[in-house]
Design brief:
heterotrimer; A: alpha+beta; Alpha-Beta Plaits; two-stranded antiparallel ribbon; 7 strands; C: alpha/beta; Rossmann fold; 2 domains; 12 helices
């Protein structure tokens, strides 16, 4: 998974399967079912990148839904034009963009819907769907060529 | 208000999401596209409420929350009341000087699905709109009770099959027309009402920002394509939404101060409604010969509505 | 800044106005309300304070009682003092969100002016709405007259907002008999009352943007049970806080309240257990009967309906002389014994006296409960004692026209 190795995130991202958290007793559950998104006091998250945030264990950022996926998007940096279509339409906050650049996919939170591939405007596409078990490097090595437009 | 730049998508993408992954919405769900965009339209603090529905049951299941802002859910019907209660508390505490940071900018937003907006929460929404609180209500309109497995709501369009308005040998699906929620909300005298769609991200972002900036109760109906109940491939959510806006099944427009109507998107090539209907499993039965009249009627209704919207826009009153 | 309200040492207030004055003095941040008979004057009273500069907070007139409580919950989660008022059908309409308020541990104060529930529609006072709230997870405190409606409303904020409690509180008074009956009320000065209630201390507030918080999360089988147990413990443990607040109030005013009020129980042979404005009638009847016929009658009145004071009821009934107890429920029992009968029987089971216990349904829809009828019931208890067994049906109906109605007999002597 070398392509995603550089994708930023905190060491807490996707560390637990949903339902895999410790089941504490009645004396330890939070009062009034309240859930704090972060540990302690924090700045407005709008001004913090994920890697700058102090996510609490209650934040779903710390959970993973990777097991939902049967197909996955693979990202090809060499073709991408950083249009951010995939970022704006990703329903799972799983396109990692920093400073107007698309950096890769958050495989902890991506469910493999394939919307990013559909909205990718490059030719060939900079994102393609593959079987979850596929090797990203191999798929990148065999990335399709530019396709000629079909004449109408 | 701290508006974020929507000049182009690259600028917009520099926003730091406050809606986290590992929520439980279906792959390809438009709800989260819309919610993310709303939250990225402003840097202000947000107090958000949600009615019971797909969004709510997918984003705050103990011990997890997907919200990086204040958020509350009470019941199926009362997100508008919950958030306006919070807004009243904000006003009171600001006046009394008991807020931790009285200068922190904040916006109040309520989300509801079409079931909670058009049906069960209609009275609560109407009351909150009438009282004039400063908040924005966003309806995530997927035209059915998707959270409970796809029953008809009063937002379900004519001809769609749902589990409680089924297509069968004696039925072509829902017979009643979709409630015109946008006009009803405009009739409350709301300063800003709109119908928007996530495929037109920039128009939607502008509309969201306008609603957030406008003082008073604003309402936005957003089309939220439902891969599970409309029955299309999850990857096609934006494509289906394109068909919805370009067939004028979902015209994109705003109404200011209850009367000034502006059409915000005019498709270059208006598609026939068959193109939209044919792309979804919920309308498949309409393509049987005996149901042809339904499609014709839907097209007629769309044409009539588009004509009406254009005329309302023309009169400029 | 709100104006100070000029109050006399003694005012002539009805229960509604007394409650609304207490709300004003507590300097509530948000009142979200909807009018309903007989509690409407509480909301109207508050409206007049708003209109005349006595209130700094927000007054939100919503479109239904459900919205009133919904607005209160949203406001309370935003970190301030919140209260409202209702009765009867309005209470029933609120029912869904009552559970949300307690589950979310929001210390809202709801002044309930007790009234019957339809059908048939009825505006008069009985305890059907109060009983409807008994599993909602709220603290329920009952005032028997206008002075108490004032005093206990002030206490309600202090109890519910206590950091170890953090639960919503219903402050009950009887429709019309208390809410509309003008009586002498000794109010506190505004600053004294507010000082007693104290400043509101927010917990997990939505307007502290440095700590974003999610309220109203879903829990399924993995988590729901633990949350409900924790909530129940807070409710059960609130007993000691209620006692402390009552003690503090006594220190301030000399007026004493207990979770269970007892009258002449020291040597009682028979006792009536009942709630609300009828308590005063029962006490008067007991006194008269003691004088007139020498029957040693006592009265036990749970001031606190939830958490139910099993401890103090047991203590009150653990009198060696006590032989028969009649529990009087002012609510249509819906196919069971009245709630007081059930709760009190459970509490009495472990007393050494183990009195005979019967149940009367009475006063439904505002049917008068007179001194003579109280005496008749007391004498009937004495007859059980003399016979050595219960001589009537266990459940009977007081003040009902038509053939005598009763259910269940007992062979226990």
């Amino acid at each position: 998974m070398s392509i995603t190795g550089s994708v930023p995130g905190t060491d807490k991202r996707g560390i637990r399967e949903l339902g895999g958290e410790e089941k504490v007793g009645w004396d330890e559950v939070t009062q009034g079912v309240a859930i704090n998104s972060f540990i302690g006091e924090t700045e407005n998250a709008a001004f913090l990148k994920p890697e700058e945030r102090s996510y609490s264990d209650f934040n779903s950022y710390t959970a993973t839904v990777a097991s939902w996926r049967i197909i996955k998007p693979v990202y090809n940096r060499d073709i991408c034009i950083d249009c951010q279509n995939c970022w704006v339409w990703c329903p799972d906050t799983s396109i990692i963009s920093r400073d107007k650049q698309m950096l890769g996919i958050d495989y902890d939170h991506c469910k493999g819907c394939g919307v990013c591939v559909e909205v990718c405007p490059t030719n060939p596409k900079s994102l393609l769907m593959f079987n979850e078990a596929a090797d990203n490097d191999e798929e990148l090595a065999g990335w399709p060529e530019k396709q000629k437009k079909e004449k109408k | 208000m701290a508006i974020t730049s929507i000049k182009n998508l690259k600028e917009f993408s520099t926003n730091n999401d406050r809606f986290e992954g590992a929520h439980l919405l279906c792959p390809g769900c438009a709800h989260s596209m819309i919610v993310r965009e709303l939250m990225n339209c402003t840097d202000d603090n947000l107090v958000i409420s949600s009615n019971t529905g797909c969004l709510e049951v997918s984003t705050a299941v103990y011990p997890y929350t997907s919200w990086d802002t204040s958020w509350i859910h009470i019941g199926f019907e009362n997100a508008a009341t919950a958030v306006t209660g919070a807004e009243a508390m904000y006003k009171a505490r600001k006046r009394k000087g008991t807020l931790k940071d009285p200068d922190a900018p904040v916006k109040f937003v309520a989300f509801g699905g079409d079931g909670s907006t058009y049906d069960i929460g209609f009275q609560w929404l109407s009351g909150a709109m009438e009282r004039g609180h400063d908040f924005t209500y966003i309806c995530l309109d997927n035209e059915n009770y998707a959270n409970t497995g796809g029953q008809r709501s009063s937002a379900t369009p004519v001809g769609a099959t749902t589990s409680t308005a089924q297509a069968g040998t004696h039925s072509y699906g829902k017979k009643e027309k979709k409630k015109d929620i946008v006009s009803i909300m405009a009739a409350h005298g709301s300063p800003y009402v709109a119908q928007l769609a996530p495929n037109k991200w920039k128009i939607m972002a502008k509309g969201f920002q306008k609603a957030l900036e406008t003082e008073g109760p604003c309402f936005i109906n957003t089309v939220s394509a439902c891969t599970t109940e409309w029955k299309f491939d999850p990857k096609d959510t934006i494509h289906i939404t394109d068909l919805a806006t370009d067939s004028l099944m979902f015209p994109i427009y705003e109404i200011i101060d209850g009367h000034e109507l502006n059409i915000l998107y005019r498709p270059k090539n208006v598609l026939k409604v068959e193109d939209y209907l044919g792309a979804q499993g919920r309308y498949r039965h309409l393509f049987k010969p005996e149901n042809k009249h339904v499609i014709e009627q839907i097209q007629k209704d769309i044409d009539k509505n588009w004509e009406l919207l254009q005329r309302r826009e023309e009169v400029r009153i | 800044m709100a104006k100070e309200f000029d109050l006399n040492e003694v005012e002539v207030w009805d229960g509604n106005y007394a409650a609304s004055q207490a709300l004003r003095q507590a300097q509530i941040d948000v009142v979200a309300a909807y009018p309903i008979t007989p509690s409407t004057p509480i909301v109207e009273g508050y409206g007049s304070y708003v209109a005349n500069g006595y209130i700094d907070g927000e007054f939100v007139m919503v479109e239904s009682e459900h919205a009133a409580m919904s607005g209160c919950i949203g406001a309370a989660a935003a970190g301030g003092r919140v209260a409202t008022a209702t009765s009867s059908q309005g209470f029933a309409l609120m029912a869904e969100v009552l559970y949300q308020a307690s589950g979310m541990r929001l210390p809202i104060v709801l002044t309930v002016v007790n009234r019957a529930l339809a059908s048939p529609l009825n505006v008069r006072g009985d305890h059907s709405d109060m009983y409807l709230g008994r599993d909602s997870g709220w603290i329920q405190i009952d005032a028997f007259n206008a002075q108490e409606a004032y005093d206990l409303a002030l206490c309600a904020f202090k109890i519910g907002e206590n950091q170890s409690v953090r639960l919503p509180v219903m402050m009950h008074q009887d429709g019309f008999t208390t809410s509309h009956k003008a009586q002498n009320v000794y109010p506190l000065k505004d600053d004294v009352a507010y000082k007693f209630v104290g400043d509101y201390v927010p917990v997990d507030e939505m307007l502290d943007f440095t700590r974003p918080v999610t309220h109203g999360a879903q829990t399924e089988e993995d988590w729901h049970y633990e949350h409900k147990a924790k909530q129940h413990k807070a409710l059960m443990d609130s007993r000691s806080v209620i006692d402390e607040v009552f003690a503090e109030f006594k220190k301030l005013t000399g007026r004493e309240y207990k979770r269970v009020e007892t009258y002449m129980m020291e040597d009682a042979e028979v006792a009536l257990v009942l709630l609300g404005s009828s308590v005063e009638s029962a006490v008067l009847a007991a006194k008269q009967l003691r004088e007139e016929e020498g029957i040693k009658v006592g009265v036990v009145a749970p001031r606190c309906f939830r958490p139910f004071p099993y401890d103090l009821i047991r203590e009150a009934l653990d009198v060696p002389s006590l032989k028969a107890v009649c529990c009087m429920d002012k609510s249509a029992p819906g196919g069971a014994m009245g709630a007081l009968f059930n709760e009190v029987s459970a509490a009495a089971y472990t007393t050494s006296s183990r009195p005979m216990i019967t149940n009367y349904i009475y006063g439904l829809g505002g049917r008068d409960f007179a001194i003579d009828e109280a005496k008749r019931i007391m004498k009937e208890q004495k007859a059980h004692v003399d016979a050595g067994h219960i001589t009537t049906n266990i459940q009977q109906f007081s003040g009902l026209r038509g053939p005598k109605l009763g259910f269940y007999e007992t062979r226990r002597s």
